[in-house]
From TrEMBL:
Pfam families, alphabetized: Acyl_transf_3
InterPro entries according to UniProt: Acyl_transf_3_dom, Acyltransferase_3
Keywords: Acyltransferase, Membrane, Transferase, Transmembrane, Transmembrane helix
Keyword Membrane: yes
Annotated GO MF terms: acyltransferase activity, transferring groups other than amino-acyl groups
Official protein name in the record: Acyltransferase
TM ranges: 42-65, 107-131, 143-163, 170-192, 198-215
Residues of the Acyltransferase domain: 4-222
Organism: Acidisarcina polymorpha
Gene Ontology biological process terms from the UniProt entry: lipopolysaccharide biosynthetic process
GO cellular-component term (any): membrane
Length: 256
């Protein structure tokens, strides 16, 4: 999982920086060729974000739900804040001069200051992904942290509810979440701009929830393997095979 995370994180980094470091590259120029296809695989896919949402639900569930107790909300939110917000705030402050300069050139000082202040405030409270066409502008990739904040708020309730499922309930819930998520996107897509569909946190919640279910399934598998004891005849068979092999004897007939 760590190796997959590395390659997808690298893809995200390339996707968001290729215009800066390779300004002459136009991935859409040869859209009908093999080169165009390969470029689209590098810079266009959005499945990396979905993978990280899935991974977030998976890791949080294993860390905070494994003991079967309710989530200690104070400790949970403090840990999330300490892990995410300080560096996030630095990126916002770092990006303000560029955004302000661009808006001053287009709108003048008064309008630029007002719009930039509104944008900065929306980012401070992690709301930019809810209305990206108006509130985005600072460090564009951080929309995913706005979505993650929404997931964190849902996790103490949603995560605990999903963790109580077992057996076929997990598979039924997984099918419903995946199907429901796809249907939701299909229903709203004709009525919203592309950015609103791509970034709206509620449309990614099902992916996060599937990560929680994946962690629950893995935990149940681990519990099942731990509670199945090794039977006496199995242990004796392994010992006999080991002893005969160590003594240089053939293992045929070792179970006799």
């Amino acid at each position: 999982m760590t190796s997959i995370r590395f390659f997808l994180a690298f893809q995200v980094a390339v996707r968001h920086t290729i215009g800066t470091f390779m300004p002459g590259v136009d991935p859409t120029a040869a859209s009908g060729t093999l080169r165009g296809f390969l470029w689209r695989q590098i810079v266009a896919p959005s499945f990396a974000g979905s993978f990280f949402f899935l991974l977030s639900g998976y890791v949080l569930a294993l860390v905070y739900l494994r003991d079967g107790q309710d989530v200690a909300k104070g400790r949970f939110f403090a840990a999330r804040f300490a892990r995410v917000y300080p560096l996030y705030l630095v990126t916002l402050l770092w990006d303000i001069p560029g955004l302000l300069a661009d808006r001053v050139a287009r709108l003048g000082w008064a309008a630029a200051l007002g719009k930039t202040a509104a944008t900065f405030t929306a980012h401070l409270v992690m709301l930019q992904a809810w209305y990206p066409t108006r509130l985005s502008g600072l460090d564009a990739p951080n929309w995913s942290l706005s979505a993650e904040t929404f997931f964190y708020l849902c996790f103490p309730v949603l995560g605990v509810a999903l963790w109580r499922l077992s057996g076929t309930q997990i598979w039924i819930a997984a099918i419903c979440l995946y199907g429901g998520g796809q249907i939701a996107v299909w229903l709203v897509q004709p009525h919203l701009q592309t950015e609103m569909v791509m970034y709206r946190p509620v449309l990614h919640l099902s992916t996060f929830a599937l990560g929680v279910l994946l962690a629950r399934w893995r935990a149940l598998r681990a519990e099942r393997s731990e509670v199945e004891p090794v039977r006496e005849w199995q242990a004796n068979a392994v010992r006999r095979l080991a002893c005969r092999s160590a003594a240089g004897e053939p293992v045929s007939g070792a179970l006799a």
